[in-house]
Amino acid sequence: MSGKESTEISDPGVPQLPKKVESHPEAFVTDINGDRGEKAGYNGENQKVDGPAANYEDGQMHRTLKQRHMAMIALGGAIGTGLFVGSGSALSTGGPVGLWLGYIFMSSIVYSMMVALGEMASLFPVAGAFTHYAARFVDPALGFATGINYWYSYAITIPVEVVAAAIVISYWDADTNAAVYITVCLILIFAVNLFGARVYGETEFWFSAIKVVTIVGLILLGIILMCGGGPNHDAIGFRYWRNPGPFAQMYINGGDGVIEGAWGQFLAFWNVFIQAAFSFLGTEIIATTLGEAENPRKTVPKAIKRVFFRLVFFYIMGIFVISVLVPYDNEDLLNGSGNAAASPFVIAIKNAGIKALPSIVNAVILVAAWSAGNSDLYAASRTFYALALERQMPKIFRKCTKKGLPIWSVVITGLFGFLAYLNQGGDTAVDAFNWLYNISAVTGVITWWGILLSYLRFYYGLKKQGLSREGFPYLAPLQPWLSWYGFIFLTLVMLFNGFPVFLKGNWDTSSFFVAYVSLLLFAICWIGWKVVKKTKVVPLDEIDFTTGRRELDELEALDRERFATESKYQKIMSILF
Fold first, then answer.
1. Contact between residue 236 and residue 226 where contact means Cβ atoms under 8 Å apart
2. Where is this region: Disordered (predicted)?
3. Do residues 352 and 230 make contact, with C-beta atoms less than 8 angstroms apart?
4. Which terminus in the chain has less CB density within 10 A, N or C?
């Protein structure tokens, strides 16, 4: 660290600041273990680094994401194909009540993760949040493994969303080769991300607004249809909860066998979890924007506080509507048909006799897939950039353009998008979608697990050193019990997500690989880095809660002056977003 004037910033999460403030983005993030000399830091290999190493970059990331961008990214980040389309597969797997309870349970787990993340992110709003917190509070090796895992999680999800877009387009045009639409989607996703964070934020603001308005409208429409307000005046009520029933049974041997009774229903219910996890991926994406967010200590807590209500309304109410309006044995659900009609919302609207709305909803689902693809490339590339800041990736990936775009991190991550063409090599679009979607879901769960582990170490480190959490920008509620709750159940979900392959007569090598390859890669990254670089777990009484706080406090003071004067329009926007 440098002992220069107090206006000098050494935090990677503060790459572009107001005038009069300089920036050395790497010196702070790499100082995660060992002595805290005035001019010395430690990189991800526990090796001493003399002085700031920010001179390599032609430019640095800029803080261009406004409060409304942050709010809508947080609000719409998890509303994608998982909710609009993937929920159909979960309904077919678990039945209406199994689906609803599964999503309620997963909502509570995701909430426990988000509030823990919110406390750390508000205190240390730095680039590469997940990587930095794991390395700083646990072990540099875990920081590397978490960063690689999160980067992979979103990089591999890019082709998932592109394939989902192709499935949706087939609702209107099943004759054109899907490769054409895959190419168009990839070009659009690259275009948005190559224009930088400001364009991404503005695009996501309007896309998220479309998704939010749509899901609210679908929930209201679902309640109306449930009460018999549709064109056919059929009051569905809870008909499908009674017949075919509240819970599905656990099917094995490709659907030829079934496990009957309460045990089979429980297994089907548990099987919903990994599908629910995919739907919730994206709730944590706001943390990847920390290095490019204006006034992060104000905008991040505000966005986090809305998470609980978003989860309750959009997911719990949305899934409730789905569970009521569509029987779980409907042939058009994703497990049965594999085309765009697989969206349970579209099925419900068609069954009600509403002719125009299915196409409108599918257009929104298409927007959701494109939006999710944009977010996937953004989140993954910023995580890869953070790994380079930690000196855990080649320095070329630290390179930013003069407009603040980590250009080579975007390029290397974007290459994953071409995996979408695997869709052309399989028998159906469903095969590619299910393979990629299952892999990405497991990697997301591992990331949440790492966040909660980092927070527990953060919490107990503060307690060990006699430091109070009072005065933090945001305090996670019910700690540490809420984090232990999420940590334990995410551990169970990771270990047992592939349990169907262990049932008698149900072994499938491909399914086993999909379920557990991510855990294997995570372990290899963690143990491999630890062995090769000889890193150590940071003792609780040596966890650093000081480095970078002064600079971030000064940034907060500057932001307070910068954003102090608000017009009536700004005040209204602040209330809304």
1. yes
2. 1-54
3. yes
4. C
Beta-carbon contacts of residue 36 (< 8 Å; ≥ 6 apart): 1, 544, 546, 547
Residue 221 has φ and ψ, to the nearest 5°, of: -65, -40
Overall size of the chain counted in residues: 577
Which residues on neighbouring strands pair with residue 9, listed in sequence order? 23
- In order of 113, 118, 302, 453, the CA distances from 481 in angstroms are 12, 16, 23, 13
Cα angle 243-247-253, degrees, rounded to a multiple of 5: 110
- Cα-Cα-Cα-Cα dihedral sign, residues 318, 82, 409, 458: positive
Strand, helix or coil for residue 532:
helix
Among 42, 138, 28, 36, smallest CA distance to 460 is for 138
C-alpha distance from residue 217 to each of 103, 317, 319, 350 (Å): 20, 12, 14, 16
Q: What are the phi and psi torsion angles at 142 (to 5°)?
A: -70, -35
Q: Is the pLDDT of residue 144 over 90?
A: yes
Q: Which of 169, 171, 172 is nearest to 184 (CA)?
A: 169
Compute the distance between CA of residue 84 and CA of residue 349 in angstroms, rounded to an integer: 13
Q: Provide φ and ψ at 305, rounded to 5°.
A: -60, -25
Q: What is the pLDDT of residues 434-463, one digit of tens each?
A: 666 666 667 888 989 999 999 999 999 999
Structural contact between residues 45 and 390, judged by C-beta atoms closer than 8 angstroms: no
State how far the Cα of 82 lies from the Cα of 99, in Å rounded to an integer: 13
Residue 57 DSSP class: -
Which residues have CB under 8 Å from 161's CB, separation 6+?
80, 81, 369, 370, 372, 373, 376
pLDDT tens, position by position, 222-239? 899 888 888 888 888 888
Residue with tokens 């706001």: 286
What residues have CB less than 8 Å from 567, skipping those under 6 apart? Answer: none
Q: How many CA atoms lie within 13 A of 239 on its CB side?
A: 11
Return d(Cα 149, Cα 131) in angstroms, integer.
Answer: 10
Q: Are 423 and 163 in contact (CB under 8 A)?
A: yes
- Distance CA(574)–CA(479), nearest Å, equals 29
Q: How far apart (Å, rounded) are the C-alpha atoms in residues 487 and 302?
A: 24
pTM summary value: 0.82
